[in-house]
Amino acid sequence: MRLLAFLLAPMICLAQSQKCDTGAEHKRYALVLGVGTYTGLPAASHAMDDSQAMSQALKGAGFAVTLLQNSAMPALYDKDETDFLKQVQPGDVVFVYYSGHIVQGADGEDDFILPSNFDPSVRVNSDNALSVGRVLDDLRDRMPGKIIVMIEGPHPVGQNSVEILGSRVPGLRIPDALEDAEILFSMSAEEHQMAGSPSDPGVSPFTRAVAKLLDKEGLSPLEVFDQAREEVMNESGRRQIPLLKNYLKSGFCFLEPVSPVSKVEPAPPVERVVERVVAAFQRNKIDHEEYVKIGNGNFLMGCVPGDTRCKPEESPRHEVKLTKDFWMGRNEVQVDSFYRYWTVNKKPKKAFPPEPTQDYHRWTIGVLPMANVTWQQASDYCAWAGGRLPTEAEWEYAARAGGSDEIYPLNSENSRDKANFRDKHGSDIYLGVAPVRQFDPNAFKLYDMSGNVWEWVADWFGGYADGPAVDPTGAPAPDKKRDHILRGGSFESDWQEHLRLSLRRIPQTQDGFKTGFRCVLADTPATLQHLDPP
User: Tell me: the pLDDT tens digits for 266-307?
Assistant: First the structure.
């Protein structure tokens, strides 16, 4: 079995650029499980309201719903008896929902739904609890066209989190993938995290948000869950961050749009800085990261007027022309993506970049940015993914995102609230590294161009006069030791210094564990072969 590949976590699907396909030629089936009353555990009082709300919402979206509430084993799920599974035919759309107590097994290999007759004095296993992996495997055998899984949890089992034998790992894990399946997997908390105690009574926030969005015309599953995720994060002040992993191809919608969707024209230029931006993104089939297409254009690179913190190496400010469109990673390359690269290329596990601090949780959280990588390792990864590291000019062009004369992103010192730097402030609730895409994207739909981890660029360090003004690649290769360049700041940076868009940094000894990267792909026919269609 393979680990379900991580896709970043929040993803904004541009419905305007694609046809809405409701899959009318296939049927829709939903299994909704809610367990709120237990003989040996505290009640999960939200589960009844949750499962009822989701059942009604799915019926409204055209699903034939099998609703099971407060079921015991084996009635909770029986492969040979459940009408739900028997109905599913190849190509159908399947939605599986659960609300109630759910825990991760001690070995970390599976998550277990706890039935109403669960005995907490007996070690949790596939005989006395329902394995999520088993449900997914059974679905795979039926070969549906699309699988959507939503878990309302994990929530604490009782006020003091009742200990479940055989479950000593907090939160849940991402289940094993369905090979070659189209699947969207979501839960109301990130991997290995708890969602907190839900309001009692009433529908849980994540379920409420998804159920409401299922009633809106023209939304894809990705849009529904992404918007619900954003709503929950905003409502909770980012104390609750739902998890979203997507393998669905674009195009499918729950309900037909009310009217034909018009094409969105590219944004007009800001002064003469940006000539064209192509507002679209696609998933790279090689590394499974998402890439934004960015149009060519002119911009002014370097220290801007009014910036009193400029360093000599940030000047002179000069006009740069980028003549070619390119695709840039929407976020810093994630741990899971880098681990995929490492294992596919059969690199020795003992040489995998070690855990430098507790911030990285021993590389068990796949949505963290990959860090502690050398420039060469980052460059090799990008080559494997079909691209390269961005040039410094491409990086700054993308970070400025069409702005003019901005010292900080959004031309405001308040942008500190929207990036991960030293200490907590505003939306920055992280003392260490943050999962990717936890902050607002810039105008080019790129995340974390400022803060979180420093990012390698392709160029050798040198003065701006050392390179051409058209498609610059920086100073020539050195004849003596010289360093490549870091951009963007990190979670340990002083925001007043390192949030500045023109800042260039030579790697320091202490920068290793704070340094990551993102890749760019050339806009060529060969590249398009590796990108999922819009």
Answer: 444 433 344 444 446 788 999 999 999 999 999 999 999 888
Tokens found for residue 516: 């990551």
Alpha helices of 146-198 — where are they, by DSSP H?
none
pLDDT tens-digit profile of 489-527?
888 877 777 888 999 988 877 677 789 999 999 999 999
Are the CB atoms for 15 and 248 separated by under 8 Å?
A: no
Residue 442: partners with Cβ closer than 8 Å, 6 or more residues away: 399, 401, 409, 449
The whole-angstrom separation of Cα 99 and Cα 155 is: 9
Query: Per the omega criterion (within 30 degrees of 0), is the bond before 74 cis?
Result: yes
Residue type, position 169, single letter: V
- Asked if residue 455 lies in contact with residue 332, where contact means CB atoms within 8 angstroms, the answer is yes
| Spatial separation of the C-alpha atoms in residues 434 and 419, rounded to whole Å | 10
Secondary structure (3-state) at 157:
coil
Q: ω before 90 within 30° of 0 (cis)? A: no
The three state secondary structure string of 472-523 is CCCECCCCCCCCEEEECCCCCCCHHHHCCCCCCECCCHHHHHHEECCCEEEC
* Assigned token pair, 340: 């995929």
CB within 8 A of 68, min separation 6: which ones?
A: 31, 32, 33, 34, 75, 76, 77
Q: What are phi and psi of 222, to 5 degrees?
A: -60, -45
Token code pair at residue 136? 């997914």
Strands 93-99 and 146-152: parallel
